[in-house]
Amino acid sequence: MKITYDLIGRIDSENAGDLEKDINSVISGEDFAPDTELEFNAAELEYISSAGLRVLLKCVKRLKNVSVTNVSPEIYNIFEVTGFTSMINIQKKLREVSVDGLPLIGTGANGNVYRLDNERIIKIYNPITCNPERIAREKTASKQALIHDIPTAISFDVVKSRDSYGIIYEMINSSTLGQFIAANPDKMEEYALKMADLLKKLHTTEFSPGSLPDARLSFHAWIDIAENSGYYSDEVISKMKEDVDNLPEQNTFIHGDFHPGNIMIVDNEPVLIDMTDSSIGSPIIDLAGSYHIMKLLPGKRPNAGRMYTGIPDDILVKMWDILFRSYTGINDDAEIREYERKLRHFALIRSMAGIVFTKIASKEEFPELIKNTSNAFLNYL
Fold this sequence. Notes:
Number of strands: 14
Oligomer: single chain
């Protein structure tokens, strides 16, 4: 549970006492449980003195979970100079950016990308799948990736656009790999091998524990969507959670949505974009995601692969086969089918959640789709 308290105007020695009494009345109320989060909304805070800071400090000492949000740059400087940013979760007020009239240069499951100017792009996220905390993690993941020599775009700032949130990135004057292959299908094999090399690089790069989220958390987010929908049985949900929790704990870098639509071509080399689900964990999570977009969906829905990557389905499936064989070193068809069966099992978790919020089937076909997908998932073994 969270209770929000608005900090308004100037808080100094003249009114700090009244502020303290008012806050005490709030946190002493019947609705305030010990684990309740107290959020101070500083959107209208103009100034805070040491007397006001002492009131907040008393709250920190008394409560487990205190945050200050929508902090202006000027107020943030006060918190930073006094050391409060190391004691309390202080969140800056996000800059408002309008995308009205901006050229749309890409779209995907997590949001749309617009050209902001000659040097920057802005990605506005789907509010259904991406909350501000998840978006902020993408900014962190991009920086961590660059530090570890993983090719990706520079992220500048988290912003707000109407009821959605976004990130401003450096402008990469290039096309996605999907657009490039669609225009140059003869280059498919060459760049499938480059994708395999990049994926090997990701999965041989170790991050320090805790530097990025556990990759299993993104799967649990998909499971939560499926569970909250009420469409899937307790048996299916329980099996999803069990299989994800049984994945090995690793510190390997995971992109989380690795496919040609999330790769730019810069100087003939691939550069990653869309780091929303970047994390650390088992490489099977990345492989299952790639399999889902590049082979499973094209086999289930016409033009599904083209929608996400820009590549015709038949070419995309061939590209996956080359990538997978190069990445794994496996050439035996039976062994490949068995490996892909395992990938399909984990890919279905994501697919089952996607079915819920995209409603891709008609009202009449929807129950049958849920039933068939559930059976496919449970009949893995």
